[in-house]
Design the sequence.
């Protein structure tokens, strides 16, 4: 199992490294194309790709950092690197969307001042779409088995949709001469960027504030634990995330005196196994208490 996991991690790193190279080349191509053609849509898509490039680098870094062992200074390891990267990525996305939106509105209000070369714009966008499809094909096999890789896959999918918007705008300009299609496409790309930025920042705030993960139901966890033989009560429950998919759980477990007298190894194994199997909790800590102790304990957190 250890060998298979290591092999999968190495494969994921290679896939990510290849896609990062593809995205970087296309980013340069779109930035140069935007400068040469005057296309705001290409510039918007290049900004989108810059953010996605950072996201892919964060994903690659996360696979490396997550493999590092915990230390006395980083007792949970280095998985939260991913969260700091998501914070930077979200802020960049909002900045790109804001700049592009302002420029697009200005062009829509004064269309005569903007000249776009649709033919080279179309060629660059088609190359970008082809590269994004190649990246998606590289990442898709690993996306089903890893949250990190699934996030990277969605990054490239977003780039592909941006390229489609640029292609539609270029074709519209070629056929109809409607130059404002470029500004309209850039607004569409900005509209795709903003929701993702807010989702990223919302998840960052949730992790940093140590809120209960959105997919975790504490009452359901308590019900499962209370179903364990010998468990009388569960209180002072805390659940938070180190990073996405890495949940931490602590609780006080009131148990019958006979269970404590017989030893707690089996009970602890059953409790941690329950959380790992049903709720995907990476780290669990239990404070076992006899009933007489729980009766006089000050419960500040239920």
Sequence:
């Amino acid at each position: 199992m250890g060998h298979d996991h290591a092999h999968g991690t190495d494969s994921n790193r290679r896939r990510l490294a290849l896609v990062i190279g593809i995205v970087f080349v296309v980013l340069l191509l779109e930035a140069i194309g935007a400068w040469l053609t005057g296309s705001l849509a290409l510039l918007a898509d290049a900004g989108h790709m810059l953010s996605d490039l950072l996201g892919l680098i964060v994903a690659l870094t996360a696979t490396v950092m997550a493999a590092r062992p915990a230390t006395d200074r980083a007792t949970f390891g280095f998985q939260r690197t991913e969260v700091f990267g998501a914070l930077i990525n979200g802020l960049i996305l909002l900045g790109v969307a804001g700049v592009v939106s302002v420029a697009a509105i200005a062009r829509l209000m004064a269309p005569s001042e903007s000249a776009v070369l649709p033919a080279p714009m179309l060629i660059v966008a088609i190359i970008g779409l082809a590269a994004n499809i190649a990246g998606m094909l590289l990442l898709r096999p690993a996306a089903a088995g890893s949250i990190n890789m699934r996030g990277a896959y969605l990054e490239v999918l977003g780039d592909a949709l941006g390229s489609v918007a640029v292609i539609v705008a270029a074709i519209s300009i070629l056929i109809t001469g409607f130059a404002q299609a470029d500004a309209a496409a850039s607004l569409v790309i900005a509209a795709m960027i903003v929701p993702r930025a807010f989702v990223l920042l919302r998840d960052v705030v949730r992790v940093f504030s140590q809120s209960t993960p959105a997919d975790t139901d504490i009452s359901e966890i308590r019900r499962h634990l209370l179903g364990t033989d010998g468990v009388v009560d569960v209180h002072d429950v805390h659940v938070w995330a180190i990073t996405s998919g890495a949940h931490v759980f602590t609780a006080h477990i009131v148990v019958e005196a006979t269970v404590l007298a017989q030893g707690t190894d089996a009970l602890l194994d059953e409790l941690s196994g329950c959380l790992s199997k049903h709720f995907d909790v990476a780290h669990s800590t239990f404070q076992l208490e006899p009933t007489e102790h729980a009766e006089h304990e000050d419960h500040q957190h239920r």
Confidence is low (pLDDT under 50) at residues 1-8. The longest strand covers residues 231-243.
